[in-house]
Protein backbone atom coordinates (compact mmCIF):
# COMPACT_ATOMS: atom_id res chain seq x y z
CA UNK A 1 0.00 0.00 0.00
CA UNK A 2 1.26 3.48 -0.84
CA UNK A 3 2.41 5.60 2.08
CA UNK A 4 -0.10 8.31 1.15
CA UNK A 5 -3.00 5.85 1.52
CA UNK A 6 -1.54 4.46 4.73
CA UNK A 7 -1.61 7.97 6.22
CA UNK A 8 -4.68 9.46 4.51
CA UNK A 9 -7.22 6.76 5.30
CA UNK A 10 -6.86 6.91 9.10
CA UNK A 11 -6.83 10.71 8.96
CA UNK A 12 -10.06 10.76 6.98
CA UNK A 13 -11.60 8.09 9.23
CA UNK A 14 -10.72 9.91 12.46
CA UNK A 15 -13.55 12.43 12.08
CA UNK A 16 -16.11 9.67 11.60
CA UNK A 17 -14.85 7.64 14.54
CA UNK A 18 -15.21 10.64 16.84
CA UNK A 19 -18.50 11.80 15.32
CA UNK A 20 -20.01 8.31 15.33
CA UNK A 21 -19.07 7.77 18.97
CA UNK A 22 -20.61 11.15 19.82
CA UNK A 23 -23.80 10.22 17.95
CA UNK A 24 -24.07 6.95 19.86
CA UNK A 25 -23.49 8.70 23.18
CA UNK A 26 -25.75 11.72 22.62
CA UNK A 27 -28.45 10.27 20.34
CA UNK A 28 -31.43 11.52 22.40
CA UNK A 29 -30.05 15.08 22.45
CA UNK A 30 -29.30 15.02 18.70
CA UNK A 31 -32.69 13.57 17.75
CA UNK A 32 -34.35 16.99 17.55
CA UNK A 33 -31.82 18.06 14.90
CA UNK A 34 -32.28 14.83 12.97
CA UNK A 35 -36.07 14.90 13.09
CA UNK A 36 -36.66 17.12 10.01
CA UNK A 37 -34.39 14.91 7.91
CA UNK A 38 -35.82 11.62 9.16
CA UNK A 39 -39.35 12.91 8.55
CA UNK A 40 -38.38 13.71 4.95
CA UNK A 41 -36.35 10.57 4.27
CA UNK A 42 -38.58 7.91 5.88
CA UNK A 43 -41.46 8.25 3.37
CA UNK A 44 -39.00 8.07 0.46
CA UNK A 45 -37.52 4.88 1.90
CA UNK A 46 -41.03 3.52 2.48
CA UNK A 47 -41.75 3.94 -1.23
CA UNK A 48 -38.42 2.37 -2.22
CA UNK A 49 -38.73 -0.73 -0.04
CA UNK A 50 -41.11 -3.69 -0.21
CA UNK A 51 -44.26 -3.48 1.93
CA UNK A 52 -42.85 -6.15 4.25
CA UNK A 53 -40.02 -3.79 5.26
CA UNK A 54 -40.89 -1.35 8.01
CA UNK A 55 -38.89 1.89 7.92
CA UNK A 56 -38.42 3.27 11.44
CA UNK A 57 -39.58 6.81 12.22
CA UNK A 58 -37.74 7.29 15.53
CA UNK A 59 -35.01 9.95 15.08
CA UNK A 60 -33.06 8.56 18.07
CA UNK A 61 -32.80 5.22 16.29
CA UNK A 62 -31.65 6.95 13.09
CA UNK A 63 -28.95 8.89 14.96
CA UNK A 64 -27.74 5.72 16.70
CA UNK A 65 -27.74 3.76 13.44
CA UNK A 66 -25.78 6.51 11.71
CA UNK A 67 -23.31 6.62 14.60
CA UNK A 68 -22.85 2.85 14.54
CA UNK A 69 -22.25 2.87 10.78
CA UNK A 70 -19.75 5.73 11.15
CA UNK A 71 -17.80 3.90 13.85
CA UNK A 72 -17.78 0.56 12.01
CA UNK A 73 -17.00 2.03 8.58
CA UNK A 74 -14.50 4.45 10.13
CA UNK A 75 -12.62 1.56 11.73
CA UNK A 76 -12.67 -0.34 8.44
CA UNK A 77 -11.35 2.67 6.51
CA UNK A 78 -8.69 3.47 9.12
CA UNK A 79 -7.36 -0.08 9.03
CA UNK A 80 -7.59 -0.43 5.24
CA UNK A 81 -10.36 -3.04 5.26
CA UNK A 82 -12.87 -2.58 2.45
CA UNK A 83 -11.78 1.04 1.92
CA UNK A 84 -14.04 1.68 -1.06
CA UNK A 85 -17.14 0.27 0.60
CA UNK A 86 -16.42 1.92 3.94
CA UNK A 87 -15.87 5.28 2.23
CA UNK A 88 -19.17 4.94 0.39
CA UNK A 89 -20.98 4.07 3.63
CA UNK A 90 -19.42 7.04 5.40
CA UNK A 91 -20.53 9.29 2.56
CA UNK A 92 -24.04 7.89 2.81
CA UNK A 93 -24.18 8.83 6.50
CA UNK A 94 -22.52 12.20 6.00
CA UNK A 95 -25.13 13.68 3.67
CA UNK A 96 -28.17 13.35 5.96
CA UNK A 97 -26.07 14.13 9.03
CA UNK A 98 -24.89 17.37 7.45
CA UNK A 99 -28.41 18.29 6.36
CA UNK A 100 -29.64 17.69 9.91
CA UNK A 101 -26.92 19.44 11.90
CA UNK A 102 -25.69 22.33 9.82
CA UNK A 103 -28.81 24.06 8.55
CA UNK A 104 -27.08 27.41 8.02
CA UNK A 105 -29.92 28.62 5.80
CA UNK A 106 -32.25 28.58 8.82
CA UNK A 107 -29.91 30.43 11.21
CA UNK A 108 -31.06 33.91 12.21
CA UNK A 109 -27.96 35.00 14.14
CA UNK A 110 -25.09 36.10 11.88
CA UNK A 111 -22.41 34.37 13.99
CA UNK A 112 -24.42 31.15 14.23
CA UNK A 113 -24.99 31.23 10.48
CA UNK A 114 -21.25 31.64 9.83
CA UNK A 115 -20.42 28.75 12.18
CA UNK A 116 -23.06 26.49 10.62
CA UNK A 117 -21.83 27.36 7.12
CA UNK A 118 -18.23 26.59 8.13
CA UNK A 119 -19.22 23.14 9.40
CA UNK A 120 -21.40 22.55 6.34
CA UNK A 121 -18.49 23.36 4.02
CA UNK A 122 -16.14 21.20 6.10
CA UNK A 123 -18.50 18.29 5.62
CA UNK A 124 -18.70 18.91 1.88
CA UNK A 125 -14.89 18.76 1.83
CA UNK A 126 -15.04 15.47 3.73
CA UNK A 127 -17.60 14.23 1.19
CA UNK A 128 -15.12 15.04 -1.57
CA UNK A 129 -12.41 13.07 0.20
CA UNK A 130 -14.78 10.15 0.68
CA UNK A 131 -15.74 10.26 -2.99
CA UNK A 132 -12.09 10.01 -4.00
CA UNK A 133 -11.50 7.20 -1.48
CA UNK A 134 -14.58 5.30 -2.64
CA UNK A 135 -13.36 5.35 -6.24
CA UNK A 136 -9.69 4.65 -5.46
CA UNK A 137 -8.58 1.32 -6.87
CA UNK A 138 -5.12 1.60 -5.26
CA UNK A 139 -3.44 1.64 -8.65
CA UNK A 140 -5.16 -1.52 -9.82
CA UNK A 141 -7.45 -1.46 -12.83
CA UNK A 142 -11.09 -1.01 -11.99
CA UNK A 143 -13.97 -3.17 -13.15
CA UNK A 144 -14.80 -0.89 -16.10
CA UNK A 145 -11.21 -1.00 -17.39
CA UNK A 146 -10.99 -4.77 -17.00
CA UNK A 147 -14.34 -5.28 -18.74
CA UNK A 148 -13.36 -3.05 -21.65
CA UNK A 149 -10.05 -4.85 -22.12
CA UNK A 150 -11.60 -8.30 -21.73
CA UNK A 151 -14.13 -7.40 -24.44
CA UNK A 152 -11.33 -6.18 -26.70
CA UNK A 153 -9.34 -9.37 -26.12
CA UNK A 154 -12.39 -11.56 -26.76
CA UNK A 155 -13.10 -9.78 -30.06
CA UNK A 156 -9.49 -10.17 -31.14
CA UNK A 157 -9.52 -13.88 -30.27
CA UNK A 158 -12.83 -14.35 -32.11
CA UNK A 159 -11.41 -12.64 -35.20
CA UNK A 160 -8.31 -14.85 -35.10
CA UNK A 161 -10.43 -17.97 -34.66
CA UNK A 162 -12.67 -16.88 -37.55
CA UNK A 163 -9.63 -16.43 -39.77
CA UNK A 164 -8.37 -19.91 -38.84
CA UNK A 165 -11.78 -21.45 -39.60
CA UNK A 166 -11.92 -19.70 -43.00
CA UNK A 167 -8.42 -20.91 -43.80
CA UNK A 168 -9.28 -24.49 -42.80
CA UNK A 169 -12.50 -24.47 -44.87
CA UNK A 170 -10.69 -23.04 -47.90
CA UNK A 171 -8.21 -25.94 -47.94
Automatic annotation (TrEMBL):
Gene Ontology cellular component list: membrane
Compartments in which it is found: Membrane
UniProt keywords, alphabetically: Membrane, Transmembrane, Transmembrane helix
Main localization, broad class: membrane
Topology with respect to the bilayer: Multi-pass membrane protein
Protein name, as recorded: DoxX family protein
Organism: Nocardioides albidus
